Amino acid sequence: MLPLIDLDIFRQDPTSPEALRQAHATADALIRCGALIVKDSRVSEDANEQFLDVMEDYFAQSQEELLKDTRPEFHYQAGATLESTEKPKCHSDASCQAVIAALDPSERPLDLEADKADPKCRFFWRMGMPPPPERTSFGSMTIPNVIPAAFATTWESAMQEWGNIIRSAVSGVSEMLAVGLGLPQDEFLRASTYGPHLLAPTATNLTRFGHLNSIFAGFHTDLNFLTIHGRSRYPGLHIWARNSGQKIEVKLPPGHLLVQAAKQLEHVTGGLILAGYHEVACTKRTLEATETRKRSAPERPFIRISSTFFHHLSSDYQMKPRELTGKMKLEPEWIEAQRASQISLPPVEYEEGQKVGTLVENELRHIALKKD
User: Fold this and answer.
1) Which has fewest Cβ within 10 Å: 2, 57, 125, 310?
2) Could you tell me which of 168, 185, 190 has the C-alpha nearest to residue 27?
């Protein structure tokens, strides 16, 4: 079971003893597990269900219709990404292969090769505040949103409503994390002022791909700072605890959200917090949920939707892990103990001063979304 964090307590009074305990628990959970479950009373299960309905209707359109919403010239960082486009990085990445090799065979992902493109589709809706043009080196991160023709009158409101709910939650988690690491509460919020945040619903057609052990999204980490998910109607997400390598099936209660550490957080903390590996596959519980859904809503499309949000640091923000970890009000012995508790992996060098946008562009090349 993943650690459960109560964001409501922190929001009421961030300086209270219980709020500080929640903040330290947030940092501890992300260091040990790379993930946590967050309780936030602003999260409405009705809003989540309504959003899932809209996304099912959108992704039930023909491939020809979805193709109109793709923007490959912008590395698919707005609009739709069709199935069999995005490739898991692990197949071509030695560090990812080292992670798999370090896992106990019983804890390894289903897809050991990760050499095929994922069957999932995505839609990226940008929710960040773009930086002034003269102050950014990453113009492709500030591209306009795409509004699908068949949803012209309702799309923006649907995306903004759910996106704002989970964006508020992940912003609160970033504040709790900062406090838990002994940093100013707004440390990560300031660093994400112009972040190219993305509401990124992901879809898999269960009629076509809903077979036991089918891979929906191969073993991978995310390239942003923090990833937050609402509850899907169909289980299938597994994550790996970063300290133990244990494979954990995610079971998200109604009204709760899942938060995972991603690559920008790993880099900026110098590997104290490691990006969380995860895989989405068709399991027995996926098939059981599909049968239940067929009985309760036979008229609805059978499409697995993950209501994902990618929270980013600003593209022009320079990550300085040595400087940041030096500011943390944590005992050096405690930090070293946490590092020592992680599964044994080859050492990683985190460049001091690398811009976030450079890291993102490098990661996009690895997953075949950016072509040079």
Assistant:
1) 57
2) 185
Q: How many CB atoms lie within 10 A of CB 308?
A: 20
Rg for the chain (alpha carbons), in Å?
20
Nearest alpha-carbon partner for 178 in 168, 195, 161, 191:
191
Q: How far apart are CA 324 and CA 366, in angstroms?
A: 27
Grade residue 115 by pLDDT with cuts at 50, 70 and 90: low
Please list, in sequence order, all residues whose beta carbon lies within 8 angstroms of the beta carbon of residue 178, skipping any fewer than 6 positions away.
Answer: 184, 185, 186, 187, 188, 189
CATH of the domain spanning 4-366, picked from 2.60.120.330, 1.10.10.10, 1.10.287.1040, 3.30.365.10: 2.60.120.330
How far apart CA 188 and CA 314 sit, in angstroms, is 10
Give the mean model confidence (pLDDT) for residues 308-337: 90
Write down the pLDDT at residue 352. 96
- Residue 93: name the closest of 182, 3, 223, 197 by CA: 223
* Nearest-angstrom CA–CA distance, 292 and 297: 8
Write the Ramachandran bin of 195: left for phi over 0, alpha for psi from -120 to 50, otherwise beta. Answer: beta
Q: Are strands 35-39 and 121-126 parallel, antiparallel or unpaired?
A: unpaired
In this structure, how many other beta carbons lie within 10 angstroms of the beta carbon of residue 1? 6
Amino acid at 215: I
Please write the tens of the pLDDT for every residue from 186-233: 999 999 999 999 999 999 999 999 999 999 999 999 999 999 999 999
First to last CA, the chain: 42
The total number of residues written for the chain in this structure: 372
Q: Which of 291, 251, 280 is nearest to 122 (CA)?
A: 280
**Rounded Cα distance, 25 and 41, in Å:** 19
Angle at 345 between CA 342 and CA 348, to 5 degrees: 105
**Residue ranges covered by each domain of the chain:** 4-366
